[in-house]
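Researcher: Let's continue the batch. This sequence belongs to ATP-dependent DNA helicase RecG, and it's 680 residues. Same format as the previous ones, please.
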Amino acid sequence: MGSKDPVSVLKGVGKQAAETLQEMKIETIHDLIMTFPYRHEDFQLKDLADTPHNERVTVEGRVESEPSVLFLGKNKSRTTVQVMVGRHLIKAIFFNQPYVKAKLRISEVVTLTGKWDRGRQVITVSNHTIGPRTDGADFEPVYSLKGSIFQKTFRKLMRQALDLAKGDIEDCLPERFRTKYHLPSIEDALEWVHFPTDGEALKQARRRFVYEELLMFQLKMQALRKKTREEEGGSFIDYDLGRLKQFIETLPFDLTDAQKRVVNEICRDLKEPFRMNRLLQGDVGSGKTVVAAISLYGAVTAGQQGALMAPTEILAEQHANTLAQWFQPFAVNIALLTGSVKGKKRQLIQEQLAAGEIDILIGTHALIQPDVRFKKLGLVITDEQHRFGVDQRRVLKDKGYNPDVLFMTATPIPRTLAISAFGEMDVSVIDEMPVGRKEIQTFWMKKDMFGKIVSRMEKELAAGRQAYVICPLIEESDKLDYQNAVDLFQQLSTYFHGKHTVGLMHGRLSSDEKEETMRSFTEGEIEVLVSTTVVEVGVNVPNATFMLIYDAERFGLSQLHQLRGRVGRGSDQSYCVLLADPKTEIGKERMASMTETNDGFVLAEKDLQLRGPGDFFGRKQSGVPEFKMADLVHDYRALETARRDAEALVNSDEFWTGDETRCLREHLEESGALAAGRLD
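Model: Same format as before. Here are the structure tokens for ATP-dependent DNA helicase RecG:
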């Protein structure tokens, strides 16, 4: 018997157990042994002096008092006893176990496992044994199980399975990697992860599986990247370096070192024969637009057309106006195409575009309509790429013969997530702000300070500035006691009546209503804009210097940072006030982090730690892989190493032909990455 046998060969697996295991996607011995524990119970004896508050701990001590039982109602009770553990006289509390009173005799030695309350010197006991601990492992695996299979039963099955599979498990990890990184063999690692003899064995097993899992994933991404480049080819954009430098010299500001580095990375890609597939990350206000303009001009100097797609009409108009100013001294024909452009004007743009008379087309999703045809599209730039669906991005790309593609985002994505969710793309980062930009002053204030905050806002308005007030909900909710936009709009309209104009914007308005409200705010007709988070992306009102975020604890760090970036866009000092009474430690930490830094990448890393990768984007992202053992927050070094190794492997002939890498190749083929074409 071996690892390919069905689990039904194991003693204790009848029809019902086999069906339950099948629900857990366990059909063979191999499936079973590759089902890892999601945690291990640590039964090592600890010194309470070194044990942090609220941590689970196992201790050995002597009973010092008669136990007392307090009955709290039907089948509920609390048994309390004093126990001397080393130098500490502590209380041990047993909930709903009145029978332990008879077992706990004065001077008896007991072993207790439970949560340690350092301040109260109390252990809430979850496991106990009378007498010193003489048997049992220090680490006990805990699995995610279904149905009537219990932990004890599953561990017995695992023990049988490991014994049966011994000598029959192929080690997919090439020996040179195991040697280089001092990783255990597959058999040792499986033994140590399921039945660790000590903490070090568990650590080494985890190291092995984390690296192997990340290597497999990165092989998929790198093979896909290689396949895409080789099969699709790309548009070779032989730009005029002299004209490009001339354009940069005419800009009304100097490029930052980060902008120069990113421009060089993009320009290298433009001249390559394969299609550029690059993600450009830059914090709010870091100057991504000028990088986009330089890239587009590169395509124009090579006799090709460029397209820039933005998620809203306002953002598309902003881009068109900005680029028109910068390109004024040059013979560049820029056109704007949005849903508002209709009739003869639209028809003229379409004719000029198809004839190659328009060099750069800027617009919204109107760019991807079937009647929009380019003569020679060489470069496609998508701004705030996560706001467009995969199909929308692909349609625009398909309007040229494999044009180079640049995705831009102002949402700082931690490097580990960028490598994972966008692993088949090259990533450029603008991690430096333009000189002279004033940092937004951020304050965290409690709800009872609302009156003072509005007075402070009034000072900004009296000086001719504008303000945003952001709310998490549109209308009153019975379930959530959070201020809503409609109520706040009415409250502030009454407060500022006759002095300042107040507007309201939220997701339930029609597109035309949103555009009109935003235009009124942009042009200064509305002085205070009460809004939900629809203003998060692409609103540029340099005169807005004050932002109040109501119920700020309801937002993630990255979202708060994006919202804050709507102010501070002019030369005046700007302010952001977070109105929040967070009840949790994470909520308090989030507010404190916002007041400590304006760096979006620092906040993104913090957000990843607080919320985890699954929720980083505000929803489950299909692009973020689920791993059995790896953790993107803590295993970022292993991820970097795995990416490097995977890239070297897929670009070597040996990987595709050698015997040592056969198992990795088979896994890659099974994953479907080689046949998929693209992972969008």
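Researcher: Any comment?
Model: The two ends are 42 Å apart (CA to CA).
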